[in-house]
From TrEMBL:
<keyword id="KW-0560">Oxidoreductase</keyword>
<dbReference type="InterPro" id="IPR002347">
    <property type="entry name" value="SDR_fam"/>
</dbReference>
<dbReference type="Pfam" id="PF00106">
    <property type="entry name" value="adh_short"/>
</dbReference>
<protein>
    <recommendedName>
        <fullName>NAD(P)-binding protein</fullName>
    </recommendedName>
</protein>
<dbReference type="GO" id="GO:0016491">
    <property type="term" value="F:oxidoreductase activity"/>
</dbReference>
<dbReference type="InterPro" id="IPR036291">
    <property type="entry name" value="NAD(P)-bd_dom_sf"/>
</dbReference>
<keyword id="KW-0521">NADP</keyword>
<comment type="similarity">
    <text>Belongs to the short-chain dehydrogenases/reductases (SDR) family.</text>
</comment>
Amino acid sequence: MDKVRWFFSMFSEMFPPSATFTEKDVPDVAGKVFLVTGGSSGVGLELCRILYHRGGRNPSQRSQRFSEGVIGVLKLDLNDLTTIKPAAQELLAKVNRLDIAWYNAGVMTPPVGSKTAQGYELQWGTNVVAHFLLNRFLSPLQLKTAQSAPKGSVRTIWVSSSAHHFGPGPYGINFDDINYEHADKKPRPFTTYSQSKVGDILCAYEYANLVSDKGILSLSLNPGNLKSNITRNSGFIARQVIGRMFLYPPRQGGLTELYSGFAPEPAENKGFTYVIPWGRIGTPNKDVKIGLEQYDTGKKLWAILEKETDKYM
């Protein structure tokens, strides 16, 4: 029965119904401030386009005022934790609120052995550790924003993937060797990518436990199976054959992220919310959920990441 349920869950996420929440459903965003990591391409770019046309404001080092919004760029290298603090300080010096943060940037299936500047497996360091550190800097401003913002409007969104279904057992994270430093044989890049996407869910879940009663909604999501730059390291056959059959335009993923940021349904949930394409409330993989609810895997990972990032605060 569990396998049947898993199959139908995956099928629903691979072939989702049409989006019911689109640009026209976004409320007035005048004067609000949003952060989108990875906003220069793929899903992030599509999301930024929508926010711009709705009048969103995203100030930064180089900003230009347009009739519809303000777009800016922060110099931030998620492969190098030493760049996080300067970028966060730059942002905090320019804005007095932060309504929604989308931790959208990521890397997928790089060459085996790829590492960040600090020696993390590249996908784990970029997709999880760097965003966790960035959130440590931005969380106080979001907490301040939530004090005067409409209930349920301040949100932190950790972008995961359907790949989280394939994280290592038993609960999606190899806690004995997260960075696979001591493995006799290096795992396939897709395995470590899947683990990083579980990590995003765990961060979102534990952050919800910490801040949901303080006015911040913490969500994670599967944006959908998309044709975007994140698949550039996949093989030619995977990109051409599988891509044509099962992948969707990046804009569809932008709608999933848009729903996560603005739809009313997540605000009706108490605590953590997981969103699936193209904007529906779903649930994470069964084993990942068991780990969170019965074995405190979110709390465990949070403690590990806090200890590892203290030196970069």
